[in-house]
Amino acid sequence: VYVSGGAAAVRVNIEEAPRFFEYLLRGRGADQVVDLVTRVCGFCGVSHALAAAMALEGCLGLEVDERAAELRVAMHLAERVKSHLLHVFLLNLPDYMGVGSAIDLWERRPGLLKRVSSALASSAKAMEALCGRTHNVVNLRLGGVYKAPSREEAEAVKRYVEEARRVLEELLDEVLPSLEVPCEGLVKPLLLVHDPGRYPHDGAAVLLEGLGGSL
Q1: What is this structure's pTM?
Q2: Which of 18, 68, 69, 117 could connect to 144 by a Cys-Cys bridge, CB 3.0–4.6 Å?
């Protein structure tokens, strides 16, 4: 509920089945939580670990070194590439292309599968170098990270990112011209973390769009 001068009340409806991780965390030490929540999702373990770490750091008054914070951002970006590839090309694109499943899509467009697989391989290698492994990452901890990549690993990550970007640009050129996304008449409010200075990986500011303005 928005009133003059600010929000008087906020109600959030979570449209997702419960996973009961809250119950698994009861009675655990704060230093265990970050490693446990990476198991919530195979797509977005960095996001869960980062959210848990930042929440606990705020409660405990822990400061994170600037370089460790930037490494966390790099970990999150590597995950975003992997997660978006899986969501867009395996879960969403078959519907937009009018086929029954991802298997049907690959049978019709085998070249598309080759490019998606190449980009996924690059993002997986970047995550292994930055996060310790591709899924259920193990390099985030309270107060920072466990290990920084070596110079050789960082240079390899740069190559992986450049390769993934090249392949993604090819995918966009191939896919976008044939997409028909039904957006006309669609009005859906969007709630997102907001940072006016950069891509909002984290932060306390929230922006609400789609209700005749912004909040």
Answers
A1: 0.79
A2: 68
pLDDT of the chain, 215 residues: tens digit per residue: 444 566 677 777 777 777 777 888 889 998 899 999 998 888 888 999 998 999 999 999 999 999 999 999 999 988 988 888 888 888 888 888 888 888 888 888 888 888 888 888 888 899 999 999 888 899 999 999 999 999 999 999 999 888 888 888 888 887 777 776 666 666 667 777 877 777 777 766 777 776 554 55
